[in-house]
Amino acid sequence: MNDRHAYAHSTLKKTLSERLPLLCRLRGWRCTRGSFEESRAMKAYRDFDTVSVNGQKEKILVSVRLRPLSDNEKSRNEVSDWECINNSTVIYKGNNPDRAMLPSAYTFDRVFGCGCPTEQVYTEGAKEVVFSAVSGINSSIFAYGQTSSGKTYTMSGITEYAVSDIYDYIEKHQERDYILKFSAMEIYNEAVRDLLSLDSTPLRLLDDPERGTVVERLTEEMLQDWNHFLDLLAVCEAQRHIGDTSMNQMSSRSHQILRLTIESSAREYQYHHLGARNSSTLTASVNFVDLAGSERASQTLSAGTRLKEGCHINRSLLTLGTVIRKLSKGGKGHVPYRNSKLTRILHNSLGGNARTAIICTMSPARMHVEQSRNTLLFASCAKEVTMNAQVNV
Ligand code: ADP
Ligand code: MG
């Protein structure tokens, strides 16, 4: 076995052992080391190459990330009420009076405890969805959660790991030519703004019969290299709308969508050699979506502007939840994409063939228990998941 084979072999083995429990759970198989189910799962995993249910590729990957207690929370003697007991279940271990009424264990595709680095969150909770765009399938990655739960921390890390990983991939796949394009927008109070332009006039959404919803006049930068990408991220950061609420001074009250479009085509020498015409051009986008805080408007001493923001945020998050829920059940019947700008813009990257990853972020602090429960409820509704009334730990 040469070095390349050895590397490929060890990667496959590692991937299998990481993904096996998930595959078994999705298929309802009992999985113990060396069992018949394990060898069946190994074979199924190789056959489908990616996690699949009944032969269909999983379209929605839902995970939860618990952040550590912040210094502020620690200084108020807050305690951590949540714990990840394995890589797919998070449990409530506090003694809230209504504990008996609510589920205490929540199971998702993946859960990430407070010591988990963002790189692992990217690799296990988003990477395969990101890479579907390299093979021509649109995708979206969302960070959902209350203000200060770690959405921006998580999503900005994931975006950087993803783009760096795509550059690595391109370098290793010289048989194709790749073009990366980047655009960025913000939705604040249902108005769409270009984060790569100094002009803050709201952008219109147009319905194009071929391309679906198009954001008119949105800047699209052709990425030259990694440093160019970092420069553009800095521009977005500076432009992003931030308001101060009583919960978090710099809390974000807008949705941010960073969109990377990947175009690739087979290199010329290849199709000359094969005597064929280049018909294998692929184009797809991956959207990195940092959603506005999911807390209710009433929690942020709402009045005037803040209340209006809260209403818009609630409506768009509610629509997003409904759209994702309907899609996870096969997308039959009416899917209300048109009820919010967020879902209209993402229409082509949600449902159909598209892949979606949702990373729900939460604070472990007791003071946030109600919001954490709402976040877990959103995550549970996004996908049919197991919620046990009690678990023994
Ligand atoms: P949000 O975007 O949800 O409002 P942020 O991403 O701004 O929240 O996170 C709030 C604070 O918590 C920031 O100071 C951030 O650095 C910190 N933080 C968030 N998640 C983590 C984490 N997993 N590990 C360490 N610090 C975190
Ligand atoms: Mg944020």
What descriptive keywords fit this protein?
single chain; 393 residues; alpha+beta; 9-stranded mixed beta sheet; 36% helix; disordered C terminus; binds adenosine-5'-diphosphate; binds magnesium ion
What topology emerges from the helices and strands here?
Layout: H1 3-27, H2 36-48, E1 52-53, E2 56-57, E3 60-66, H3 71-75, E4 82-84, E5 89-92, E6 105-107, E7 110-112, H4 118-125, H5 127-132, E8 139-144, H6 151-172, E9 176-188, E10 191-194, E11 205-208, E12 212-215, E13 221-222, H7 226-239, E14 255-266, H8 268-274, E15 282-290, H9 305-328, H10 341-345, E16 355-362, H11 369-382, E17 387-388
Parallel strand pairs: 3-7, 3-16, 8-15, 8-16
Antiparallel strand pairs: 1-2, 4-5, 5-6, 6-17, 9-10, 9-13, 9-14, 11-12, 14-15
Helix pairs in contact: 1-2, 4-6
The chain binds adenosine-5'-diphosphate and magnesium ion (MG).
- Average pLDDT level: 79
Quickly count the helices: 11
Which regions contain 5 or more consecutive residues with pLDDT less than 50?
Answer: 1-56, 243-251, 297-302, 385-393
What separation lies between the terminal Cα atoms? 45 Å
Number of strands: 17
Largest sheet entry: 9 strands, mixed
What is the CA-based Rg, rounded?
A: 22 Å
Strand proportion, as a percent range, falls in: 15-25%
Instruction: Classify the secondary structure makeup into a structural class.
Output: alpha+beta
Give the ligands present. Answer: adenosine-5'-diphosphate, magnesium ion
Task: Give the SSE string.
Answer: HHEEEHEEEEHHEHEEEEEHEHEHHEHE
Write down the overall geometry.
globular
Which bin fits the share of residues in helices? 25-40%
